[in-house]
Each structure stands twice: as structure tokens, then as C-alpha cells.
Amino acid sequence: MLCYCRTTYMPMSYLYGRKFHGPITDLVLQLRQEIHPIPYHEINWNKQRHNCCKEDLYYPHSIVQDLLWDSLHYLSEPILKYWPFTKLRERGLKRGVELMRYGAQETRYITIGCIEKSLQMMCWWAENPNGDEFKHHLARLPDYLWVAEDGMKMQTFRSQIWDCAFATQAIIATNMVEEYGDSLKKAHFYIKESQIKQNPSGDFSKMCRHFTKGGWAFSDQDQGWVVSDCTAEALKVIL
Fold first, then answer.
1. pTM for the full model?
2. CA 9, CA 68: separation in Å to the nearest integer?
3. In this structure, which of 83, 101, 112, 146 has its CB flanked by the most CB atoms within 10 Å?
4. Is-catalytic flag, 229?
5. What is the pLDDT averaged over residues 65-85?
6. Is 142:153 a contact under the CB 8 Å cutoff?
7. Is cis: bond before 11, omega within 30 of 0?
8. How far is 46 from 34, CA to CA, in rounded Å?
9. Where are the alpha helices (DSSP H) in 19-113?
10. Torsion angle of alpha carbons 101, 121, 216, 4, nearest 10°?
């Protein structure tokens, strides 16, 4: 789960560090009215910092943890607004952009999942709404969309290899291989071609990535994030 936490909080941290927000349109005002039970301008956001629905509070915060977080917000945040401490934030934002750019390029702008992708798109739009990065992200949006009986859906993760591996094993388990010969040939070809043939480019360890050569991802070769159980199931099918 480390990779998902990092790739989610990284664009969130960038947007917070930039203090970026879009224009307040009529749609934004309507969404605020729909989402919040009280008027948006009356919300005391500082009081909401530790306010969590009991059903969502899986692990209650300790007093020490709350004190640490409050200290970071009330003490560190004002300091980071002034030189030379602004340099520290600028360095962090620069590193965040570097990691996001590398991650996007290595996954052919699919990224690791739809949440990370949407947040990264916001970051690149904040950087330059007419820039190449934002346009490349737009081009891979259809990879996450599909139309169901009740309308358009957004997939959290694309699971082609995972689904294909288990479907193939299920067919083999039926002892009806001859009847599914054509499907099995296509599945074998897809899984074989989806094996990742190379490691991430450059000094990937510096970019918080591990070696990937020879493994399989959860979705496809383009996405490129190797998963151990996906590799095991795909290799089982190939063998």
C-alpha cells in the first residue's frame, strides 16, 4: 500500500503547497451547497481537523499525534511562508513535480490508478493547462472509462492481467480445454505479451521505484507497476 499512499498524497501535497484553487464558478457554488450541511463560508475548518465520523475512525488518534499535527499546522506552516524557509517548500514542490513526471512517463500517462491520475491531472493543469503533460493525461482517460447498463463508469484500477489469469485458470480447471481452445490461445498470447520486458528508465531507485523486468502488473504492460501475486498468477498460467 506504500506506493498508493505516496502517489496519492504527493499530488495532494503539491496542490496544498502551491495553495492552488480553480475559479469559483456557479457549479462550484452548487456543489458546496450540495455537499456541506451548513453554508460553506460558515464552516470553521480548524475545528474540522480532528472531526471524523465514528464509522470511518478505524484507529483513534492519540493526543500526541493530534498535538504533532496541530504543531505542524499552527507553527510550521506560518514559518514556511517566509524566506529562507520558502526555499524548503520550493525544493519539495520541485521534487514532487519530478516524481510525478517520471511516474506518468513510465506508465504512459495511465499512472497507478484513477485517484492518482485525477489528482495528477489537477497538478499539471495548475502548472500549465495548455502543457504537454496535461494533454498526455487527457489522451489516456478512456482507459479508465466504460459504459455499463446504467451509464458511464470510472474504474478504480484496470485489472486485465489479473482477470485474464484467473479466467484462464478457471477454464483449465473445467477439463474442457478443447472447447475453449481459441480463447486459451488468445489468453496465452495476451499474458505472454504483457510481461514487462525492462526496468523503469534511468536511476529508478532514486525515483522511488523497484526493478520490474520479468514481472506482471495488475492491468497491463503500459501501466508497468509489478505486483507479486499478479506475477505469480500470470506465471502459473504461462507454465
1. 0.85
2. 18
3. 112
4. yes
5. 87
6. no
7. no
8. 21
9. 26-35, 63-71, 77-79, 85-106
10. 90
